[in-house]
Design a protein that fits this description.
Layout: H1 4-14, E1 21-23, H2 30-43, E2 45-50, H3 58-68, E3 72-77, E4 80-84
Parallel strand pairs: 1-2
Antiparallel strand pairs: 2-4, 3-4
């Protein structure tokens, strides 16, 4: 689990990122979770945007994405989810 200090650090890092995934009408599926896991391995920190037409609420989406990809949920802000997972091969972020 992340400490408050680590979450603050990650939120500041994520501020400048653009979302690279969108959750829409179809909701969360296995293929999306697989792609998000791969993106997390490559980048460690990603943003996912939830579109207006998404049927599930943002907390449900965030929970299923973080559990499916075994990532830490850093923050949910508006329709944006920030996920972090330490990379095995491309370690770029050093947590405080």
């Amino acid at each position: 689990m992340l400490t408050g200090k680590q979450k603050r650090f990650l939120r500041s890092k994520a501020h400048h990122l653009n979302p690279i995934f969108q959750v829409g009408k179809g909701g969360v599926n296995d293929n999306m979770i697989k792609q998000i896991s791969e993106a997390l391995e490559a980048r460690e920190l990603i943003k996912v945007s939830i579109l207006q037409n998404c049927d599930e609420d943002r907390d449900t989406v965030a929970k299923s994405l973080s559990e499916g990809s075994k990532a830490e949920l850093v923050q949910i802000i508006g329709n944006m989810i920030v996920l972090y997972k330490e990379s095995n091969e491309n370690k770029q972020i050093t947590l405080p």
